[in-house]
Amino acid sequence: MEEHINFYDAASLKDGFSGNRKYLKGFLAKMELIFQLHPEHFQHDEDKVFYIITRLYGNAMNWAASLIENRDPCLRNYQSFISKIKAFYGNIDATFIANQKLRILKQKHLGEINKYIMEFNKYADDSSWNEPAKMDAFLAGLHDQIATRI
Q1: How many other β-carbons are positioned within 10 Å of the β-carbon of residue 150?
Q2: Which of 10, 63, 131, 143 is within CB 3.0–4.6 Å of 107 for a Cys-Cys bond?
Q3: Host H or E run for residue 121
Q4: Residue ranges per structural domain of the chain
């Protein structure tokens, strides 16, 4: 007999998010793991957003309740919701540092494109920049010999 794990039980409320900034990154990583483990339950953006909201409590749930009351469009778009929760509850210092690093990051040596990409992505994930701004920063940081070919 095949055993099924109830994914709703796998992330109980004790593993939810109350609004404490230092736990947001881990909470979102846990949600992403659940989505990957159970893709059949999370085929649409709304499924992911609503599931995350069911894992919120305290101040974070009050924040989400205002989104629901105002029918915020981010409730229908996973990336938009993630951007919004990160902007509100993310580590402000990490975001500030990431934005600063992206402004000055340069590919130092021609043969180190992979190193540059990895470092860029590390900061891009924590930044508050939109995709076009990230693309501009990425291109601006490329080694001159590569940038002139693009």
Answers
A1: 6
A2: 143
A3: helix 113-126
A4: 12-89, 92-147
Match 């040596």 to its residue by tokens. 109
The Cα 72–Cα 147 span in angstroms is 40
Q: How many CB atoms lie within 10 A of CB 144?
A: 10
Number of other CB atoms surrounding residue 32 within 10 Å:
14
Long-range contacts of 17-21 (CB under 8 A, 24+ apart): 17/55, 17/56, 17/57, 17/60, 17/89, 18/56, 18/57, 18/58, 18/59, 18/60, 19/58, 19/59, 19/60, 19/63, 19/89, 21/89, 21/90, 21/91, 21/92
